[in-house]
Amino acid sequence: MLRGRTLVALGVGSLLSASLASWGAHAAVTVLGNGLAHTCYEAAEFDGSATDGIAACSQALEQMALPVKDRAATFVNRGILYSHLHEPQLAIADYDRGISMEPTLGEAYVDRGAALIELSRFAEAADEIKKGIAFGSSRLEIAYYDLGMAEDGLGDVRAAYFAYKKATEIEPGFALASSQLSRFKVVHVRPQGT
User: Fold this and answer.
1) Spans of all domains in the chain
2) Same fold, 1-25+126-194 and 30-104
């Protein structure tokens, strides 16, 4: 608790909009092997061509007999690629399919939250991201960054600050979170009468 301190966010609205425009979900789910599902994963994880990646994901889902975990991961990875194309509704539909198959897949909730942020559905986004964190998302720095974005959208400056701070504690070189933190100033306020 920061007793006697006030957090001040500078220029929250314009920076949030700029960050949302440049940020897409990046918590891809690993699929091992050499097939189309792995090609789909690589496109999502390493920022390959979203269009080619979606084609690979779709082919894998239509033509391959994938184990349930890999099938769920392929839906999530295709959702990430839809997010890269700023198609949040299509992304959410794929995240939902992945979650229905693997309900404890933390990355799916975090990525679903990122798509909800793009739709300005910040309260839902925060809830989804918190679920992803609780299920042990493997990329917690991204989860906390996205949570900060959702809290920013809700106008909860304090919660946003602590989420961005947590992201930089997990990954000290995380430039996006560091950039968001630079907007904040912690001001010491003396209680009246002292």
Assistant:
1) 1-25+126-194, 30-104
2) yes
Q: Among 68, 128, 67, 119, which Cα is nearest to 95's?
A: 128
pLDDT-derived band of residue 20, with 50, 70 and 90 as boundaries? very low
Instruction: List the structure tokens of 185.
Output: 């100033």
Q: The whole model's pTM is what?
A: 0.84
187 DSSP β-pair partners: 6
Please state, in angstroms and rounded to a whole number, the distance separating the CA atoms of residues 143 and 27.
8
CATH topology of domain 1-25+126-194: 1.25.40
Domain 30-104: give its CATH code.
1.25.40
Q: Residue 5 corresponds to which tokens in the numbers above?
A: 């301190």
| H-run or E-run covering 102 | none
What one-character-per-residue DSSP string does 166-182 give?
Answer: HHHHH-TT-HHHHHHHT
Dihedral in degrees, nearest 10, Cα atoms 83, 85, 90, 94: -50
Helical H segments across the chain, by residue range:
12-22, 36-45, 50-63, 68-84, 88-101, 106-118, 122-134, 140-154, 157-170, 175-181
